Amino acid sequence: QLQLQESGPGLVKPSETLSLTCTVSGGSISSSSHFWGWIRQPPGKGLEWIGNIYYTGSTRYNPSLRSQVTISVDTSKNQFSLKLTSATAADTAIYYCARGIYNSAWLHLDSWGQGTLVTVSS
Amino acid sequence: DIQMTQSPSTLSASVGDRVTITCRASQSVSSWLAWYQQKPGKAPELLIYKASSLESGVPSRFSGSGSGTELTLTISSLQPDDLATYYCLQYDSFPYTFGQGTKLEIK
User: Fold this and answer.
1) Contacts of B76 (CB under 8 A, 6+ apart)
2) CA-CA 20 to 30 A from A111: which of A30, A81, B22, B42?
3) Cβ–Cβ of A62/B95 closer than 8 Å?
4) Cα–Cα distance measured from residue B102 to residue B37, given in angstroms and rounded to the nearest whole number
5) A81 CA to chain B: closest CA distance, Å?
6) What angle do CA A64, A54, B3 make, to 5 degrees?
7) Which residues contact B69 (CB under 8 A, 6 or more apart)?
8) Do the beta carbons of residue A114 and residue A7 sit within 8 Å?
9) What is the pLDDT of residue B16?
10) B13 CB within 8 Å of a chain A CB
């Protein structure tokens, strides 16, 4: 049974870097049939796609966040990570990691972590 | 970016009702659309992918249809457990974009 678990600080100061890690269990992050993604949801609002990464390190980012965001993968630890620089209150959200289906193309997200709330505040 | 517009934004229906939620895309997404159910305080869960393919384990009362710029999610007979917000996601092109959500309330 695949499980994804987000971890990282729940409180980040404005202008600092938000860093989260997603640990994958019950499956290999090096699977050629899957990719890994980050999505966020401000409290009480809708979903925003942040970006995807394939185990090779190939990435796709939301242009609206491209200058702030880096997604990386550590196959030795079966983890992938999100870094968002220069955080502001607008980055306060529940952050979800997810698995997606890859079949010669980036397809849909099929399994999500439980999410972690990150608040940006001094 | 492809804009996804869901309608209605909120929906109140009775147990046993047939419910339809629509996603309209600003340009064609072909069939590259998924539907998710998000219950209060929980992560989204996949219901439908590729517009009409039912995810394993999802009740058969859920179905998806359409292609191009108008796609729909139908619940054939609403159950109390279906209280949730429903989102569409287009993955035809980057950036992936979600609809704004449809909050389904049970009368």
Assistant:
1) B18, B61, B62, B63
2) B22
3) yes
4) 10
5) 19
6) 35
7) B24, B25, B26, B27, B28, B29
8) no
9) 97
10) no
pLDDT attached to residue B27: 98
Mutate to test the interface with A, among B45, B55, B96, B103 (most CBs of A within 10 A): B96
Identify whether the C-beta of residue B102 lies closer than 8 Å to the C-beta of residue B85. Answer: yes
Under DSSP, is residue B80 helix (H, G, I), strand (E, B) or coil?
A: helix
Dist. CA A67–CA A109, nearest whole Å:
23
Q: Which residues of chain B does A101 touch, with a Cβ-Cβ cutoff of 8 Å?
A: 49
Q: B10-13 and B102-106 as β-strands: parallel, antiparallel, unpaired?
A: parallel
What is the torsion angle, in degrees rounded to the nearest 10, for the CA atoms of residue A98, residue B46, residue B107 and residue B22?
110
pLDDT at residue B77 in the model:
97
Question: Could you read off the pLDDT of A73-107 as tens digits, one per residue?
Answer: 999 999 999 999 999 999 999 999 999 999 999 99
